[in-house]
Amino acid sequence: MIDVSNVTISFEEENQTHVILDDVSLNIEKGEFICLLGPSGCGKSTLLNAMAGFLKPTSGEIKIENQIVQKPSMKYVTIFQNYGLLPWRTVQKNVELGLETQKYSKEKKAKIASHYLKMVGLEHAAKKRPAQLSGGMQQRVAIARALAVEPDILFMDEPFGALDAITRMKLQTDILEIAQDTKKTVVFVTHDIEEAVFLADRIVIMSANPGRIKALLTVQLPKHRDRTSNDFLMIRDKVYEIFNMKSHETIEYYI
Ligand SMILES: Nc1ncnc2c1ncn2[C@@H]1O[C@H](COP(=O)(O)OP(=O)(O)OP(=O)(O)O)[C@@H](O)[C@H]1O
């Protein structure tokens, strides 16, 4: 569904060229949940923004369903860490935002918004304003708003980065279920190894200076993942190994 071919992205600054992404190639299948994982500054957001049409590659090309990506499209939607809700609108009206460019009746817009608010467990909050909601709830509204335009692809840039650990785990479970139920293709940026192992069908492991793909890891875990299972921990360890973060000393524990 998404073909990234030999993409290099560089920026000019004070007469110097900074190569942010260097010859990155990647194919993403329809319905896959892909996590872009890597240290700060390795170009995860830059790659996501290029796929989403916010940024043009310096060389190489990106195609979505065989069309070169030139600009953002309604067929794919980006969700950012800072929810981007309009504070003066109710939750319901925020979810309806993306529908306003389409010629739907008032009733149809309200029906679609209610459907997706229900999907994220917020039907009871429809009349509230964003400031009356917790961070986790605001991000749920942003997810409902993105889903309401029924995109084929969701691009998510560290969407849970600002949330506390427990809320984050709840939202991870929910987005995984929603992505599976609605058969979305998801490209999700994170620097959290556990989050990537919990969510991804495949993890794209990136290295920095310049940003490159260091490894592609297929996560062969069941649909419903258990963060404490041996298989989960083995895959997490494998990622640590790829980042050279695993200690090779044997430690004995006495409890
Ligand atoms: N418009 C720009 N002009 C110059 N440099 C840029 C621009 N956008 C990004 N960069 C640089 O590109 C590099 C990669 O940035 P990017 O935000 O893609 O990294 P990231 O892996 O998503 O990092 P983080 O996890 O910290 O968000 C950084 O060094 C950043 O300073």
Automatic annotation (TrEMBL):
Keywords: ATP-binding, Nucleotide-binding, Transport. This is ABC transporter ATP-binding protein. It comes from the Bacteria. The keyword Lipid biosynthesis does not apply. PROSITE patterns: ABC_TRANSPORTER_1, ABC_TRANSPORTER_2. GO terms for molecular function: ATP binding. Gene3D superfamilies: P-loop containing nucleotide triphosphate hydrolases. Residues 2-233 form the ABC transporter domain. InterPro entries: AAA+_ATPase (IPR003593), ABC_transporter-like_ATP-bd (IPR003439), ABC_transporter-like_CS (IPR017871), ABC_transporter_ATP-bind (IPR050166), P-loop_NTPase (IPR027417).
